[in-house]
Amino acid sequence: MEIMETEECLEVSLPRLDRSGLFSKTIIVEGVGLARPLEQTTCSVIVDAKDFPASSRQYSAETSLVFTIGELDGEQDLFIDKCITTMRKEEVAMFQSNEAFDWFDRPCVVTINLQHFDNPPGWPLLTNSQKYEQAKQHKQTGVELFKQEEIKSAFRQFSRATKYLLLIDKGLDVPGDIDKLLYQCHLNLAACQLRFPSAADHVITNCTKALILDHKNVKGHVRRGQAYLAKGDYSAAAQDFNKGLQFNPNNKFIQNLLTIAQNGQRAENKQLSSGLSQMFT
């Protein structure tokens, strides 16, 4: 049997959300061919995961499951997906995580039999319409997950939607309002990142990208202003909140945020003034 170490990292660019998970893989039965499953690949597998917490896929050592890699965003499902992407057709392998996870209090062991899979067409083979529809689907799934407070899973869906949109060739027939869907995805990414203070710079980046596409977007100015507040940049925050009020002047929420930013500015100015006066007394 061949034993190899594989370092896998979940596809999340958020600070505090990405986690590298090192697992060991023991090949029990060699696979055939060279191809391995990709994102959006439909697989037929048997997963012996009795050492695993419950999953919506209901893994079973006796029953073959057919599912698509990347369709679910539960942490245990992502772990299984990552394991499968290292396998070849008809391969049987045992995977052991080398650390406990947020969803499991100890390292886990699973055995996977990859019976069959069909890789989807590569990015260049997808039409603009197919990319657009995939983006809409991922974005809508992300919205539903966000409502359920599944923030990390929602973030992944919005990220996937953004990738599909950025791959659309605007020189060909465009299936819909790509720019609108794209700035919505950037704003949704920012909404996820706002939950984590250390991700303020990423919020600013995504909101700025959204505002390039729609400079009057109130959510873009408000969320970027909130990120500046988190960084203690009260002047920049106040500018964004004032912009938001320019387009939505009666919004009490933005008015309250502007007051917080202005109070922060005054406190900073007072502290600076006090420091300068002490230098010359």
From TrEMBL:
TPR repeats lie at residues 218-251. InterPro entries: FKBP4/5/8-like, TPR-like_helical_dom_sf, TPR_rpt. The keyword Isomerase applies. It comes from the Eukaryota. SUPFAM superfamilies: TPR-like (SSF48452). GO terms for molecular function: isomerase activity. Keywords: Isomerase, TPR repeat. This is Peptidyl-prolyl cis-trans isomerase FKBP4. It comes from Mizuhopecten yessoensis (Japanese scallop).
